[in-house]
Give the backbone structure.
Amino acid sequence: MNADRFVVVYENGVPAAILQEAFHVIQTDEVNAESTLEFELYFTDPKRGFVKNQAEVRLGGQAYKVKTVTDKKESGAGKITSVYAENLYYDLARAARLETAVFDVVKAGSAMRFALQNTSWDIGIVGISATRSFESDADNPLALLQLIADVYHGELVFHPVEKTVDLVKQTGGDNGMVFHFKKNMKSIERTVSTTSLITRLYAFGKDGMTFASVNGGLSYVEDHSYTDELLIGSLDCSNFTSAEDMLAYAKMRAADYCKPNYSYRLSVLYLQDLAGHGHERYGLGDVVRVVDEELGLDIRTRIVRMEKDILEPWNTVAELSTTIGTLSLDSGFVQDAIDSVVKSFVAPRLVQATIDTARGEVNAMYELGVPVRYRYEETPDGIIFTHPDGLTCEIKVI
């Protein structure tokens, strides 16, 4: 019996029932976001009585709490019970209320310890050594943990059975997995969206500062390379104290916001547990390559969301990242600096970026499959990025 294929009901930390006849078993996980379990069983199943609201169920090393139980009856069909459960860490959103807190030059572990102080959870691995200063008005532990992940540019990994939480630079790995249409990819859906399209971008820095003094009196930048329409947006640059740096930053962001946003959703075969397919391993956070000649697609990107069909793995759905991920560098100084700024500075709509520390280059790949090469140079207190069109922006690390 493959225990990872069956939902198990636990009572007081001890297995009470194995739901061998459960069907439509779907595990959904997203990086730094949702983690849920859904399944169905017949109302006449002798183990139906174990499935109750707030009951703990486990599957594949994850633990969930049942939140919704729905009994359905239709003419000519058997009665079915549908169950929706949330990962145990969701309860952290309903834990002891937190007060507003100010963290002054602290490591992530200290902030995480504050978040978990009145819970049954503990800190696991903290793979980020940088210090940050920030203020939090999060009123529950889960909200604060999510803020910490954002501030330190990391990703949370919850272990609900052990009740520990990790903060790492990036989950997943790169096993050389390739998704190819008609091989291990059943379908691909590419969405091109202009819902967030912006052609005129205002920016506001510390204490309401603008860059009008260095931009001909204008407190905005424009980019109409995609459309002549006037679409206005604003940019929070409250961390900037230099008008020149803020202007360069805004120009680069405008160059990204003025283009459509691309996203991809794949229906893929999850066969790694089947005989002969052990080499086809992939999971949440992993870097994969997606190839489709007809769509002119050949990209390397991350899996940021999975809907894993446990009993019918050929119906698994994977969603790909359309944002840049954490970069891997040899230099700790460069890593901390780039972690702090590159996700928003270089481009929010890249699917891949690697660093060549020997040449001082950021090699980036846009969603459209067009490679872009940025230069960077270390300074005594930061990094200077140079855009391919010659624009530069200096980021100071405090």
Notes: Residues 337 and 397 are 6 Å apart (CA to CA). The two ends are 55 Å apart (CA to CA). The chain is about 10% helix and 40% strand. The mean pLDDT is 80.
